[in-house]
Amino acid sequence: MATINFYLDKPDKKGFAPIHLRINCNGNQVKVSTGQKIEPKKFDKSKQKAIGLTTESHEINHYLDFLRERADELLHHSNKKTFIQDEVKSLLNEHIENYKENSNVNIVKEQVSLYGKPFTFVDLFAGAGGFSEGFLQAEHNNKFFDFVVANDINENCELTHVVRYNHQLGLDAEFLKQDITEPDFLDNLLEKINGRKIDVVCGGPPCQSFSLAGKRKKFDKKDDLFSHYLEVIKVLQPKYFVMENVKGILTKEKGKIKELIIKEINSIVDTKEIPLLISFIKKIRKESNSFLFDSIIKRVELEKLLEKDKESGKADFINFVENRFRKLTPKIADYKTSKTDENINTIRHGFNLLARAKEWEKLKRDIIKEKDFCNIDSDNFANAFTDFLTEISSENVISKIENAFKILKVPNTYKKDCDDIITALKIYTTSFDESIEILKSHCNKSQTKELETILESIRLYKIEKPFVANASNYGVPQNRERVLFIGCRKDQKFISEIPATVSEEEKVTIFEALYDLDFIGNNQEAHRYELVDISSQYNGTAKKMAKLLKKRKIDGKPISKGGKSFAEWSRKGRLIERFKPQTKPFYVRNTEALENGEKYFDILNNHKTSNQNETVIERLGVILKNGDYKKAQPELEKLGLSTNKRNYNVLKPDEQSSTIMTIADDYIHYNSPRSLTVREMARLQSFDDSFVFQGKRSTGGNNRKTEVPQYTLVGNAVPPLLARAVASEILKNIK
After folding, report:
1. Residue 102's pLDDT band (cuts 50, 70, 90)
2. Neighbours of 576 (CB within 10 A)
């Protein structure tokens, strides 16, 4: 085991001593100059730290901690087990030079000494901003998150973001309102990021976007959002990324989707390590099958290309395979056949289609957009659209080329060449992982072992399996199960789960979350809090209800002294001190109203009930009395109050709610026959009261496809306290 420490060399004429890094291992010593100097009286030799609270001391200690971490990683956590002294020196000097080159002294001085250590994050598919809110609540050992960019496609998401983060909190966080599948999305995102390194990316591509390649039947706008999300990861290469989705993703298509997601994440590579893999492939390359090995090399080289260069790289791959076919054509067909045969033409024209993939993808995107705009689905038009979109897919083109080869009467001598062309085209459409599997099939045992070692260093992210998180385990008064895929960059500590902040017995109840808002009736709106007297409101059960109220820490953990109730935390706000609101919360109807300064400053926002008629109120009263919709149905039928509505969720004050969705009328308040307000649903999601949901309160019919009103913003959000737990765990581990 190596020991790592720092020591001072002789002081120079000005009295400053150079700081050196020293490593002792098995009687050998390695010494490296850090390039940093300090007055000996300002250095504590036993603690290996600069003394004092000055900016300079903070900066030096931050730098020395960085070097110690890098040396420890190299000696104790590297795939390579033995190093010669010069290797250690060389590798550490690379870190030292890189640090000097990339560190901004002014930023280090300001952030480390005065404000702590900020880590940047980007929120994709942001919606209302549940992830963003939770990340801004997290802090650990003076480390916190700095919000850079959020993205979504809807105007009301943008409006809610701009009001909350730019106006109310005074942050400079950007918002990109654009579909992630648009060709210039990445360019626009990078422009918003403006050269900053991104430490964490979070977001949840809608579950409809997960499909097995070549198995899609519907072709809607949500197709393939996952792969575009991963493209962002590949470009930004954050230290961690968090992908959230519904629990059903684990069993979708018999678990194959989950496996696909893991495989795709494992296919993200460290481009700096690509040359090592290419050298290996060239070393084991067999002359008898050189074309196939060259195809694998070309596929691997695609991983190195920036997004803007990928199209030309793909075209180059197809041209390489097509040239092979051109040379083969005279050997498998005479001149006349090569010019007129339908199968030869299918192969030849198939190459043309594959080489123009970019143009076909654009056409496909435009057709899907128009199809969606015209509501083409479950009608006599849908199949024709699906058939055409299937026809132009790369997988289908390759399948037709393969079939054409089979029909051709190819001499046995050249059948293997034809098979290699098909394999090369399939390599073109595979993930990095799948192309490596093809490579493995051509390796012997010792080569496979060597390849596995290379793959360990080339995979940029570590992930074993997804983690199922129930929001109620993190202080949220709601049993909302979500799947989290947490990708950990190989130079970061591995995170496999998010520890619960409350036990089963400590979970926050619905009553704790909503009792202080229970002063509103049917078709009413409140703009200020009113006193709720539990004794008079609950008569014989007042003591039982009062016992449900607990003092808690910010994360929901009960605490005997100090602390606040869940409702008090909601009113006070859970954001860390540096993100406290700069202005009072306010509401605006739309973007135009914001620009015109038409703001509504209220003490309480989003607390309005629906206008339900007498029949509905009577129906809700019967269901509430029975405590369950199913149990109430005989009585509803008897009273002529039956409805075709599939379900009602009756809230139980001493339990947690079921998953909060986007339609308020699905829920019945535990104390009165009415649906919930936006603010009550936001409380069950763990949003602070200062978070105001903007724009329209609700919508219906076809408008649900395009509009994201307040109820939808709330129902689709990640609960901030769940996001806070994720962010806190990342801060504990991030380097």
Report:
1. very low
2. 16
